[in-house]
Amino acid sequence: MTFDIANKTILVTGANRGIGKTLVTSLIEQGAAKVYAAVRNLDSATALVETYGDKIVPIQINLGDVDSITAAAQIASDVQMVVNNAGAFQGTTPLAEDAIASLQLEMDINVYGLIRMAQAFAPTLKANGGGAFVQLNSVVSIKTFANFATYSASKAASYAMTQALRELLSEQGTRVLSIHPGPIATDMSSAAGLGDIAESPTIVADGIIAALKTGEFHVFPDTMAQQIGGAYQSFATNVVEVTMTEE
What is the CATH number of the domain that holds 233? Predict the structure, then answer.
């Protein structure tokens, strides 16, 4: 299945900064009709509205608050594509005193938040012709980095859920993409100490838009991601992307 963003209505979580803000800009500039800029604080989307006018509709979503997600799904009843970009990063090792607390927060936002988004918006996407659901995972969903192992664990879990969503939502004609960036120039990369090797968020947006056109499931947009993705590709193609019977 492929998906063309031209004249489509799209929702992006975490739209006020980093990859999310860049993606909103790219979607509008490449032909999307309207983008719901999903943020926790509506005022944080003001700059996008000032630039793009009524093509941007700020909408409140907190991935840790199921009521906000349910309410947003009712408001954005015309949405044809959802990009779940927002996430939480604590950067904790398994031996740190706060490891369990960090993992609990990251699981709540990065995994349970994904589940909440899928449950709320899958019926809307189905009603609007299938569309697409895009999940921002990470290369750390495949390769754990010890200094932020709890984040890696949460992204590994969100990747597992994304694989399940690919199979389940295909039945209603919804394309699912799993995006696996490496270090991207965002606040999160700076917090992880990866600012010196981080690449532009634009390459993530470009990778998503290209994959929607070609029908790919995995997207490895940057240099580090492509290195890891290249080694992983055979497993991805021959195991992850193959439907197996549970016998």
Answer: 3.40.50.720
